[in-house]
Design goal:
This protein is an all-alpha fold and about 725 residues long. Among the domains are: about 285-405; about 450-550 and about 565-595, no CATH class. The protein is about 70% helix and about 0% strand. It has helices at about 5-45, 45-55, 55-60, 65-105, 110-125, 125-140, 160-180, 190-195, 200-225, 225-235, 250-265, 270-285, 290-305, 310-325, 330-355, 355-365, 365-380, 390-405, 410-430, 435-445, 445-450, 470-475, 475-495, 505, 510-520, 525-550, 565-570, 575-595, 620-630, 645-665, 670-675, 680-685, 700-705, 715-730. α10 (about 225-235) packs parallel to α12, α11 packs parallel to α13 and α15 packs antiparallel against α16 (about 355-365). The longest helix is centred in the N-terminal third of the chain and has 44 residues, at about 65-105. It comes from Davidia involucrata (Dove tree). InterPro entries: Noc2 (IPR005343). Pfam families: Noc2 (PF03715). Belongs to the NOC2 family. This is Nucleolar complex protein 2.
């Protein structure tokens, strides 16, 4: 207590004493009057006075000293109440906190409690222990939630080791426990099994345990950030996916989560997520297969909008997953494939009718081309099936239309991609597609007949570009890549029909046009390449003619299908042997391009490296789970923890941005205006968004000016124009 407080208290006490003194004088006067009245009462009515003496003796023994004592005690009581009021408040606060601590201590789950529950479940299969463990599992999954009322919770988890122990046991053992309670087989099952089970007494007694397990596991999946932890959780939930047939709302949420992890996860997570989705489609059928088809295709389209050397493998993996899922139900897959291929056809029809740059860009972009690649893979996988074979012709027409839409040399990579897709369709379905015309038209373009004037140039990976810049067309590296790719695809096309009885007639026109290219080209190495191909075609013609001279059937005879069947199985034709060497050369070239490119996000395209070979191996499963759930992570804390290194790097990036902005503000305004005036010419020479083009590097200052123009620019422009107008007036 300070000096000022003491002074105030003394002043208050003095005023109280003055008031008390005045009241004491008044009370004494009243008391004397009251004594006189009692004495007169004794004289006037002695009987009544005797009655009061017997029954109310205190009233007659009234005295002045009692008044003084009462006033003083009242004053002391008021002072004591004023001094003790904050102490009682503190005591109440301490009592409340002590009560909360006592409650929380009672609700804490210890490692010994979890061990006792687990042992009783393993040894005696006690239902009470299962229920207690499921309550603890719910608390573990909802740990750290903002809207959770702690007073209503029966348990609370205080350590990460207890959380890890609960998660590991429940995810590893709960599927078997629930199947034992519901009297189901230890693994597998179909939707009909759960539908029949829903009308039994066991389901009515234990369905809340199943829903609690699946619902809380879904909640903690959305909180997890570690890919290995998510992979293990999804792998264990995959065994219990059959129970989702009874909970449609949970099924939709699980499909959404699985699709998200499939499209965005790294490491082994995409593989595990796809297996989870595929298992749902196999076991539950029509309940989820349509939603999975649409969701998987949508996630694929979102992931394939941009392509580079490192993302190419990831996109191929996603396409293989979609193709694999289509095989689960080909009848339903045909309906979805028909709708999606029809969408691609409508976009191409609009481009052929409108013929504008904006419409062309909708076709000549990675999203459209990767969708064609996806359906090409689906036709190659299921083209022999009766349900899927009708889609072969429309898809072939779309790919041919895309290849001929803009027949310029800058789109050579796109045309080669289309030729490759047509070759794959022809090989898988056994149908003839005139791919050679598309490839030979490319060789006759003037850009490949002239000697390179742009120098050697940088190596071009034709798999990762759709369009190249004009300077790249004149480089030696681009011309070589195009000619070699044309030779490889043309050899693939001819090798498919190298065992046909009509190979001589089929190869006549390609040989004539290849000889014309040898005469017109001025590049010696291209001549050597074409002469080698011509020799192989002529050797294959002699190979088939020698066999054709000995046959007696007509060309329209069904026996023509068995022509050179044994040689085809052994790959004895000259073109089959030559195409094998060309494939090795192409593989070596692609590998060298991958090694020379910058491997950004390399680990994101590695799949299945951490998945166990046998999911049924209990020892491997336990070891993996113990390794995964061994960290100090808890739900609700993953997003808040940040490493100091990440914070430092973020600070450095902010400083660099600020420095670049300051440098952009200091640049001359006239220089900025010149850059902005050249934008139209720059955009006309560069390809559309999402394409990789080799261009000269732009300085950081100019980049910053293009991205973030200075805020003071309008004012400086106005001043600049004002000065110009003044000069003109003076001149006039």
């Amino acid at each position: 207590m300070g000096v000022k407080d003491k002074v105030k208290k003394l002043k208050n006490r003095a005023t109280i004493e003055e008031d008390v003194g005045g009241t004491m004088l008044k009370s004494r006067e009243k008391a004397s009057e009251h004594m006189q009245q009692l004495q007169s009462l004794q004289e006037k009515d002695p009987e009544f006075y005797q009655f009061l003496k017997e029954h109310d003796k205190e009233l007659l023994e009234f005295n002045d000293d009692d008044i003084d004592e009462d006033v003083e005690t009242d004053m002391d009581d008021e002072e004591m109440q004023g001094d003790q009021q904050p102490d009682t408040h503190d005591m109440e606060h301490l009592a409340i906190t002590a009560e909360k601590e006592e409650k929380s201590y009672k609700n804490v789950i210890t490692s010994a409690m979890v061990d006792s529950w687990c042992n009783s479940i393993r040894e005696n299969a006690k239902l009470g222990a299962v229920r207690s463990l499921m309550k603890a599992f719910r608390t573990a999954c909802h740990y750290g939630d903002d809207g959770e009322d702690e007073s209503s919770k029966k348990f609370s988890i205080m350590s990460s080791s207890v959380f890890n122990k609960i998660m590991l046991f429940v995810l590893s053992e709960m599927d078997g426990i629930l199947r034992g309670l519901l009297k189901l087989p230890p693994s597998g099952g179909k939707k009909e099994t759960i539908i029949d089970l829903m009308s039994t007494k066991q389901w009515k007694n234990y369905n809340h345990l199943v829903k609690s397990y699946l619902g809380n596991a879904l909640h903690v999946l959305n909180q997890m950030t570690d890919t290995e932890m998510i992979s293990f959780t999804l792998r264990r939930l995959r065994y219990s996916s059959i129970f989702l047939a009874a909970f449609p709302s949970l099924l939709r949420k699980y499909i959404k989560v699985g699709l998200h992890f499939w499209g965005t996860g790294g490491g082994a997570l995409p593989v595990v997520s796809f297996l989870f989705i595929r298992d749902l489609c196999i076991r539950l059928g029509s309940d989820c297969i349509d939603e999975c088809f649409k969701g998987l295709y949508k996630a694929y389209v979102l992931n394939c909008q941009f392509v580079n050397a490192t993302k190419l493998q990831h996109i191929q993996f996603l396409g293989n997953c979609v193709t694999e899922l289509l095989g689960v139900d080909l009848f339903a897959a045909y309906q979805h494939a028909f709708v999606f291929i029809r969408q691609l056809a409508m976009i191409l029809r609009e481009a052929l009718n409108m013929k504008t740059k904006e419409v062309f860009r909708k076709v000549y972009e990675w999203k459209y081309m990767n969708c064609l690649e996806l359906w090409t893979g689906a036709i190659c996988a299921y083209g022999s099936e009766a349900d899927f074979r009708p889609l072969t012709y429309p898809l072939t027409q779309i790919i041919s239309g895309v290849a001929h839409l803009v027949p310029t040399a800058r789109y050579f990579p796109l045309r080669l991609r289309c030729a490759r897709m047509l070759n794959r369709i022809a090989a898988s379905t056994g149908t003839f597609i005139p791919v050679s015309l598309l490839l030979l038209d490319m060789l006759e373009m003037k850009e490949l007949n002239r000697p390179p004037t742009g120098g050697v140039g940088k190596a071009v990976d034709l798999r990762t570009v759709l369009k190249v810049s004009k300077p790249t067309l004149k480089t030696r590296a681009f011309q070589e890549a195009c000619v070699f790719s044309v030779v490889e695809e043309l050899t693939e096309h001819l090798a498919q029909w190298s065992y046909s009885v009509a190979f001589l007639e089929l190869s006549f026109i390609p040989v004539v046009r290849l000889r014309n290219f040898c005469k017109s080209t001025k590049v010696e190495r291209f001549r050597r390449e074409m002469r080698q191909l011509i020799r192989q075609i002529e050797a294959n013609s002699e190979f088939t003619n020698a066999k054709r001279m000995s046959v007696s059937f007509l060309p329209n005879d069904p026996a023509a299908a068995s022509f050179l069947e044994d040689e085809k199985k052994s790959g004895a034709s000259p073109l089959s042997q030559y195409v094998a060497t060309l494939r090795q050369r192409a593989q070596q070239r692609n590998e060298s391009l991958m090694e020379s490119s910058v491997l950004v996000g390399e680990h994101s395209s590695v799949f299945g490296s951490k998945t166990p070979e046998n999911d049924e191996d209990d020892d491997a499963r336990d070891e993996e789970g113990a390794a995964v759930f061994s960290s100090s992570w808890l739900p609700g804390s993953g997003s808040e923890t940040k490493h100091p290194k990440e914070e430092k790097t973020k600070k450095k990036k902010k400083r660099r941005k600020e420095q670049q902005e300051e440098a952009a503000l200091d640049e001359d305004v006239v220089e900025d205006l010149i850059l902005s005036s050249d934008e139209d010419g720059f955009m006309s020479d560069t390809p559309s968004a999402g394409e990789d083009v080799e261009a000269e590097p732009v300085p950081q200052k100019q980049q910053s000016k293009r991205q973030k123009p200075s805020a003071e620019l309008p004012k400086k422009k106005a001043q600049f124009h004002a000065k110009k107008s003044k000069k003109r007036k003076r001149a006039n």
